[in-house]
Amino acid sequence: MTSSPEKSGSKDELCMEIDPPLGENLATAEDWRKALQKVVPAVVVLRTTACRAFDTESAGASYATGFVVDKRRGIILTNRHVVKPGPVVAEAMFVNREEVPVHPIYRDPVHDFGFFRYDPAAVQFLSYEEIPLAPDAACVGLEIRVVGNDSGEKVSILAGTLARLDRDAPHYKKDGYNDFNTFYMQAASGTKGGSSGSPVIDWQGRAVALNAGSKSSSASAFFLPLERVVRALSFLQKGRDSFQDKWEAVTILRGTLQATFLHKGFDETRRLGLQSETEQLVRHASPLSETGMLVVDSVVPGGPAHKLLEPGDVLVRMNKEVTTQFLKMESLLDDSVGQNVELELERGGKPFTVQLPVQDLHSITPNYFLEVSGAVIHPLSYQQVGLNLH
Predict the structure, then answer these.
(1) Rounded (10°) CA dihedral 190, 327, 167, 148
(2) Closest by CA position to 282, among listed 311, 243, 245, 315
(3) Sign of CA dihedral 205, 207, 212, 216
(4) 214 catalytic residue (yes or no)
(5) Mean pLDDT by 10 residues, the chain (390 residues)
(6) In 111-226, where does DSSP find H-type helix?
(7) Options 19, 70, 81, 171, the catalytic residue
């Protein structure tokens, strides 16, 4: 991840951006005009200064994007690599050029999202509303707009169409932050640095995804799904009713087995030795659109899965339920912190079952995870693949 949204690396890098249109044009130009009229005032330009090199981030200043998701409490959603894992000084600039200081209140331990807070009373001359989050509205072929600080242009509006909902999480660089254990959405885009944290909206003015990265060599853009964002925001909202109220400490449990998984197609799982009977069972128990299964990619030494799971193990069931999607797996783990989960897997065509304790990502011993202010980086998730963060 680059320290500034304007910086770029090698030719074949991934950045944080959005995409162009692909299909169904159900919404009229007037529908989009009304939606953007509501959305644009809630989008802010974020200026952040990392006071010192910390974790995966170097010291320096950068520009990015965020948007208001709770006006009453003063909560802004953006990317985790914008909030930063360590000390940061930041301010948000609204479309009418009003500036307010913002302070980080949450960084997800794994996924590329985080929240800033600000004082809503400090915005005196702008009328705006929060942008609602609608993760269930995302679908292939959905016409979208990405509104953000693209290439330092303050407000850019780029059109696009969601092409995929099941892309692997992008890997930006070997020794920096990389997301894992989640799908990303994909579209084509011409956006550049500064668009990190932009809302990906539909014609109703709802955010269906969070802009996260792009691949400059192919104009591909990658968006983070919002299901875990909605969950974290709901916990934060329980901590206070308004900005003036005292913010009570809240616990956002994030379960982990200290192992990473990849989604592999059925053709690849067969090469790993998956029995045809197991494939039939999984296909019958899954939606017709399902194309593969979750496969163990890495295991952290000393963690719950150490010496029990190995790269290449194919996950069949968790707690007796066929599990082929990251969201289902993460939801179960988040709800099972401090308990055991039962995993049924196949290794080289031979089935086996293990019971593993679920740990909380926020309280993992630093021997296995690097933890800073609630932000945890998985040391085995880093891979060099030519991606850039804005």
Answers:
(1) 0
(2) 315
(3) negative
(4) no
(5) 40 46 64 94 94 81 94 95 90 95 93 95 95 95 89 81 90 84 86 83 95 79 94 90 71 93 96 95 93 95 94 96 96 95 96 96 53 34 36
(6) none
(7) 81
How far apart (Å, rounded) are the C-alpha atoms in residues 326 and 362?
Answer: 19
CB 36 within 8 A of CB 145: yes
Query: ∠ at Cα 376 (12, 16), nearest 5°?
Result: 30
* Bridge partner list, 143: 161
Q: How far is CA 48 from CA 1, 86, 238, in A?
A: 14, 12, 27
Contacts of 271 (CB under 8 A, 6+ apart): none
Residues 6+ apart with CB under 8 A from 246: 240
CA distance 100 to 120: 9
Q: Are 345 and 314 in contact (CB under 8 A)?
A: yes
Q: Reduced to 3 states, what is the DSSP secondary structure of residue 279? A: helix
Q: What pLDDT, in 10s, does the model give residues 223-277?
A: 999 999 999 999 999 877 766 666 677 888 999 999 999 999 999 999 999 999 9
**Amino acid identity, position 161:** T
Residue 362: name the closest of 282, 253, 275, 281 by CA. 253
Tokens representing 327 are: 């969201």
**CA angle (152, 37, 117) in 5-degree steps:** 60
151 is catalytic: no
Q: Is 381 a catalytic residue?
A: no
- CA-to-CA distance for 332 and 257, rounded, in angstroms? 11
Which residue ranges form the domains of the chain, and what is each CATH number? Answer: 1-256+361-390 (2.40.10.120), 258-357 (2.30.42.10)
Residue 184 near residue 16 (C-beta atoms within 8 A): no
Six-digit token string for 8: 């770029």
Could you give the count of Cα atoms lying within 13 Å of 154 in the half-sphere of its Cβ? Answer: 7
Identity of the residue numbered 377: I
Rounded Cα gap, residues 231 and 182, in angstroms: 15
In 3-state terms, the chain is what percent helix, strand and coil (to 5)?
A: 20, 35, 45
The catalytic position among 62, 189, 195, 196 is 195
What are 20's two structure tokens?
Answer: 């162009």
Structure tokens belonging to residue 10: 């090698």
Active-site residue identified among 70, 108, 112, 179: 112
Query: Which residue type, as a one-letter code, is found at position 148?
Result: G
